């Protein structure tokens, strides 16, 4: 039986109705993952060494995640299984522990089949910066899949697994979801413990998922939310997500940032306007909100300052002595220098260098602390916005996935500084404020997807899923298979 493109709940029903045995499922998914290996979307394909009877016992009618195969981003620690975080320096790292999220998914009897590729240490948005090779778009090899969670996005978009994990420091789940036409979700900051996940920038890092539906996100929230004493930033944001996600409120106040509109091409703008008309017809409201433009313009700079400095500080231990591959040297300083020089990629080195500069005593006040102050102003502006609306709609990308030749070798700081560069980084608002955020498939241009992104105030994860469920249903009615509005 063909298992491609099925969601968690569809697989669950097939297992329940005995249309499929767990062994058939796992063999088929494994075979499909294997047939895509040349795309570099996995760092490691895991063998499944259970026999048929053992596998069948993993299934439990009461547990929607039981026996569900998935892949996890390779910065998630998996005990005894290679975990590289996409960097050469960790090419031989077999963690002694499971990350809390790994453990929680294991406790639900899910079946881990692969570790997926990422931009080195999560630093990048293209999927071209991982040490094990470039990941390209599953539907067009000349384009990027997006990053940094490129392998996970690829796996779900190609229909190989029903869900995959990701981490999101700037937009690394939600932007690739847009490019690949799938659901990409990050919860309120701290809802899923980050313990055991190799960080990028702890104050901005969120863990989350790629799925085929909002329903599946709700299932995963129930399974993996919760306070964890091992992560001092974690919070108890548990709720009955699966039970309640489909109870969409009668009237939702949606909002859209006015300043975003002028950077949208006509076609995209038309699509949003058409959608807003349909939403209003259903009795909901859409409000165009003013957002301080100077603050919007500061997003890329503030993000770079904060994330690069946090990254260089968190990764001080990747030195060939505490962790990582070691290069020869005559004393420990030389060993560190040579190990880091030899095994980090150019993008990471660049970000570490900029980060270190900001951490110098004489620069901290002028650069880093000022950035943190601007971040606070951004958070206050977002708070104000939620006094008027429930759900903020943002475009997660302004075009389809770019061509590799147009982005190769470039990175966030290489964008030209024309007016409006911040729109590419608009989703970072979600990381700065910690609000829950989700990208859903929306339209298609030349048969390539562009998503739509929804946000709610911190801790309103259930309200976000309810609004997303409403929008998912609406989109399934008004958008056809070609990704165009039915007239
Ligand atoms: N594209 C962003 C960057 O390059 C986001 C990375 C992320 O979310 N991990 O930093």
From TrEMBL:
Span of domain Amidase: 57-465
Family annotation (Pfam families): Amidase
Keyword list, A-Z: Transferase
Cross-referenced InterPro entries: Amidase (IPR000120), Amidase_CS (IPR020556), Amidase_dom (IPR023631), AS_sf (IPR036928)
Highest rank taxon of the organism: Bacteria
UniProt keyword Lipid metabolism present: no
GO molecular function: transferase activity
PROSITE patterns according to UniProt: AMIDASES
Stored PANTHER family: GLUTAMYL-TRNA(GLN) AMIDOTRANSFERASE SUBUNIT A (PTHR11895:SF151), TRANSAMIDASE (PTHR11895)
Name of the protein this chain belongs to: Aspartyl/glutamyl-tRNA amidotransferase subunit A
Species annotation: Spiroplasma helicoides
């Amino acid at each position: 039986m063909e298992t491609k493109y099925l969601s968690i709940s569809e697989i669950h029903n097939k297992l329940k109705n005995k249309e499929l045995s767990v062994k058939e499922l796992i063999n088929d998914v494994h075979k499909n993952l294997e047939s895509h290996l040349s795309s570099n979307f996995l760092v490691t394909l895991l063998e499944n060494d259970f026999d048929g009877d053992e596998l069948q016992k993993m299934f439990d009618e009461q547990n929607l995640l039981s026996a569900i195969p998935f892949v996890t981003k390779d910065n998630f620690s998996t005990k005894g299984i290679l975990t590289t975080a996409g960097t050469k320096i960790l090419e031989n790292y077999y963690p002694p522990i499971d990350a809390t999220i790994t453990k929680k998914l294991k406790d639900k009897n899910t079946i881990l089949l692969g570790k997926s590729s990422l931009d080195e240490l999560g630093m990048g948005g293209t999927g071209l910066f991982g040490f094990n090779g470039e990941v390209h778009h599953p539907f067009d090899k000349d384009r990027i899949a997006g990053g940094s969670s490129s392998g996970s996005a690829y796996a779900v978009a190609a229909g190989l697994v029903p869900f995959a994990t990701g981490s999101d420091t700037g937009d690394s789940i939600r932007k690739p979801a847009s490019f690949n036409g799938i659901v990409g979700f990050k919860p309120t900051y701290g809802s899923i413990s980050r313990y055991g996940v190799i960080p990028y920038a702890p104050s901005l890092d969120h863990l989350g998922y790629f799925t085929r539906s909002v329903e599946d996100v709700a299932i995963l929230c129930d399974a993996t939310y919760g306070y964890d004493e091992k992560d001092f930033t974690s919070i108890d944001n548990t709720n009955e997500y699966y039970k309640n996600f489909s109870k969409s409120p009668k009237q939702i106040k949606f909002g859209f940032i006015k300043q975003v509109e002028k950077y949208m091409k006509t076609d995209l703008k038309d699509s949003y306007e058409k959608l807003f008309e349909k939403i209003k017809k259903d009795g909901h409201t859409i409000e165009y909100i003013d957002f301080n433009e100077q603050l919007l313009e500061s997003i890329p700079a503030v993000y770079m300052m904060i994330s690069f400095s946090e990254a260089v500080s968190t990764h001080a231990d990747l030195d060939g002595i505490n962790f990582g591959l070691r290069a020869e040297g005559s004393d420990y300083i030389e060993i560190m220098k040579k190990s880091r020089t030899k095994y980090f990629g150019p993008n990471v080195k660049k970000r570490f260098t900029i980060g270190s500069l900001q951490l110098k005593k004489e620069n901290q006040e002028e650069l880093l602390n000022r950035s943190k102050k601007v971040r606070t102003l951004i958070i206050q502006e977002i708070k104000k916005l939620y006094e008027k609306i429930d759900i903020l709609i943002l475009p997660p990308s302004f075009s389809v996935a770019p061509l590799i030749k147009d982005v190769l070798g470039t990175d966030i700081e290489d964008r030209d500084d024309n007016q409006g560069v911040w729109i590419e980084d608009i989703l970072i608002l979600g990381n700065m404020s910690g609000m829950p955020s989700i990208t859903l498939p929306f339209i298609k241009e030349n048969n390539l997807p562009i998503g739509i992104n929804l946000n709610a105030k911190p801790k309103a994860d259930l309200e976000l899923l309810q609004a997303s469920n409403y929008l998912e249903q609406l989109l399934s009615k008004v958008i056809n298979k070609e990704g165009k509005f039915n007239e």
